[in-house]
């Protein structure tokens, strides 16, 4: 095929992919007309009933409590008084009307719906003194933290709704990496004030923020318990999450735009019966730890029709510790994510990095990821691992994914996944199995289209605990590089159509029970599979034409030819 024909074909494929994304976007708009019950039906697991929170028809307008919309008057007290009046009356709606409302931290109460009318801008102060230091959410912790802009602790029946905007003034808190700025942007940032790390790589909003991490780390290494005064001295380092709801039940977040958080944007933790829908999350792509929606140890959750443009992970499951008030079981369970769009982020849909609490019964479908670093990202490591199972993902559209379309990374925090995958088998040592060993199994991934990715798939398990029982079906993607499968057991790939250039299509290292069926690939693949390791065995190929590759199989590091079975 001539180069001009190849370019024409590439253009046609791009147009088709764009049309698919356009249709998916239209479908996403139509998703807003779906009822909650539509998302709770036809699931691959039993989902408990989730009932939308209801509130009495009582309104408490913050203006009636002294709030002033001039963008300079601090309205913290007025908003507090409105919330207190609402909860004492038995609940209702605290109204944020059109206008710019400057405020410090807001603490929600049970039976309160914080409602932002169209034209309302709830603007959090850029002065850190307006966010008090607290001894944890229960007031008893010895580890102090900054009160989040919006928080709630052990609440029932709460909501944040409306058509307004919530702005966290994150630039007053966040560090910025030089590598994520143009020379002109970096120069302007430095001229604005703040402090730069000794190596010149990171800008902080203040010297106190810059020195805070080392100060607390030195206290810990010297076995000293940090006091309230210690935390107060590094207050500017202690970035809060923008919306953090802890150990709460019956939560509704519906409608507003959440933007520019100091850290994570929306972070319910140890909470249950949650509905998140029809919202937008926006932050600069370089926002450090600027996650979109993180579900930390949450159960019975429905997320649909949300749009995320994040500086870190976009939609993320974080299975950590459960609270003493939660029933025993996996930290994250019964979670539905559907009809969502992600424009940027370190991952479109993510599980991890902490997985020690365990997760199961998660459904992700009908989502679009455009320009994320990774599409589907599953990450943990030996110090933070647990059992993650029964994950169902289908009908995902991706475009211009920087790195991997699909990534299983059990070495998170130890370097670039591509570099980790390149480490030889002699350098991969078994570690003792413990409760913190990551166990990722029973993932069902089907009907995926990805137009342009750095690499198709990396599955990088541990020698002592392979990633196992991964089912991929109906995958259509273009990628610069193919598939890497390391320390994996029982990997099933069927109906895979990959468009890529050069190199080996599959690199398998210490993989066993791998079943490949109906794999289509371009003519310029140099080898179908590079197989390494004496533990590699039972690699079965079915309905695959390997006659057009220059070299069908390459065997390295004691891999045996009998490991490959062609049917």
Say how many strands there are: 36
Spatial separation of the terminal alpha carbons: 30 Å
Q: How would the global form be characterised?
A: globular
Total helices: the number is 7
The average pLDDT is 93
CA-atom Rg in angstroms: 25 Å
Our estimate of the beta-strand percent is: 35-45%
- Helix-strand makeup class: mainly beta
Q: Could you explain how this protein is built, in words?
A:
With 567 residues, the chain is mainly β. The protein contains seven helices and 36 strands. The strands form four sheets. It has a 28-stranded parallel beta sheet that branches. A three-stranded parallel beta sheet has the order 4-9-15. Helix 7 (417-421) links the parallel strand 29 and strand 30 (439-460). The radius of gyration is 25 Å and the shape is globular.
Record the SSE blueprint.
Layout: H1 3-31, H2 36-39, E1 59-61, H3 76-88, E2 92-96, E3 99-103, E4 106-107, E5 112-116, E6 120-124, E7 133-134, E8 145-146, E9 150-153, E10 156-162, E11 165-167, E12 176-177, H4 183-191, E13 195-196, E14 202-204, H5 207-221, H6 228-233, E15 243-246, E16 249-254, E17 257-259, E18 272-277, E19 280-282, E20 293-296, E21 299-304, E22 307-309, E23 315-318, E24 332-338, E25 341-344, E26 347-351, E27 359-370, E28 374-379, E29 387-409, H7 417-421, E30 439-460, E31 467-499, E32 504-520, E33 527-532, E34 537-542, E35 551-556, E36 564-566
Parallel strand pairs: 1-2, 2-5, 3-6, 4-9, 5-10, 6-11, 9-15, 10-16, 11-17, 16-18, 17-19, 18-21, 19-22, 20-23, 21-24, 22-25, 23-26, 24-27, 25-27, 26-28, 27-29, 28-29, 29-30, 30-31, 31-32, 32-33, 32-34, 33-35, 34-36
Antiparallel strand pairs: 7-8, 12-14, 13-14
């Amino acid at each position: 095929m001539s180069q001009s024909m190849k370019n024409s074909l590439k253009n046609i494929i791009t147009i088709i992919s764009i049309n698919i994304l356009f249709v998916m976007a239209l479908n996403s708009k139509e998703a807003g007309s779906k009822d909650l019950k539509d998302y709770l039906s036809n699931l691959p697991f039993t989902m408990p009933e989730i009932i939308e929170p209801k509130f009495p028809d009582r309104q408490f307008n913050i203006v009636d409590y002294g709030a002033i919309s001039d963008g300079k008057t601090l309205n913290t007290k007025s908003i507090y008084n409105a919330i207190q009046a609402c909860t004492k009356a038995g609940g209702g709606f605290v109204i944020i009307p059109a206008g710019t409302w400057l405020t410090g931290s807001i603490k929600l109460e049970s039976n309160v719906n914080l409602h932002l009318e169209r034209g309302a801008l709830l603007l959090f102060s850029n002065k850190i003194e307006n966010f008090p230091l607290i001894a944890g959410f229960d007031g008893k912790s010895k580890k102090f933290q900054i009160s989040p802009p919006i928080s709630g602790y052990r609440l029932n029946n709460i909501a944040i709704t409306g058509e307004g905007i919530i702005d966290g003034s994150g630039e007053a808190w966040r560090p910025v990496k030089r590598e994520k700025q143009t020379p002109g942007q970096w120069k302007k940032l430095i001229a604005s004030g703040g402090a730069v790390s000794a190596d010149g790589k990171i800008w902080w909003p203040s010297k106190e923020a810059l020195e805070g991490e080392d100060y607390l780390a030195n206290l810990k290494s010297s076995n000293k318990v940090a006091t309230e005064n210690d935390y107060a001295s590094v207050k500017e380092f202690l970035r809060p999450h923008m919306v953090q709801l802890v150990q709460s039940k019956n939560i509704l977040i519906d409608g507003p735009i959440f933007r520019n958080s100091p850290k994570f944007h929306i972070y319910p933790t140890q909470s249950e019966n949650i509905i998140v829908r029809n919202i937008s999350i926006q932050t600069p792509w370089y926002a450090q730890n600027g996650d979109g929606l993180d579900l930390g140890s949450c159960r019975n959750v429905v997320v649909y029709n949300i749009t995320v443009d994040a500086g870190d992970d976009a939609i993320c499951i974080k299975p950590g510790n459960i609270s003493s008030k939660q029933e025993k079981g996996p930290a994250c369970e019964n979670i539905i994510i559907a009809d969502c769009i992600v424009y940027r982020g370190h991952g479109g849909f993510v599980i991890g990095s902490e997985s020690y609490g365990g997760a199961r019964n998660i459904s992700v479908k009908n989502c679009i990821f455009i320009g994320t670093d990774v599409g589907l990202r599953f990450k943990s490591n030996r110090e933070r691992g647990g059992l993650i199972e029964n994950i169902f993902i289908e009908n995902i559209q991706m475009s211009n994914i920087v790195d991997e379309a699909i990534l299983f990374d059990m070495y998170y925090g130890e370097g670039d996944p591509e570099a980790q995958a390149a480490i030889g088998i002699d350098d991969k040592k078994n570690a003792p199995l413990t409760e913190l060993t990551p166990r990722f199994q029973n993932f069902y991934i089907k009907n995926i289209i990805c137009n342009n990715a750095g690499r198709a798939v990396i599955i990088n398990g541990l020698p002592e605990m392979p990633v196992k029982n991964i089912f991929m079906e109906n995958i259509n993607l273009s990628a610069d590089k193919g598939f890497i499968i390391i320390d994996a057991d029982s990997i099933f790939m069927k109906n895979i159509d990959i468009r890529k250039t050069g190199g080996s299509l599959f690199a398998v290292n210490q993989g066993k029970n791998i079943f490949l069926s109906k794999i289509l690939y371009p003519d310029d693949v140099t080898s179908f599979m590079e197989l390494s390791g004496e533990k590699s065995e039972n690699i079965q190929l079915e309905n695959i034409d390997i006659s057009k590759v220059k070299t069908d199989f390459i065997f390295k590091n004691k891999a045996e030819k009998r490991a490959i079975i062609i049917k």
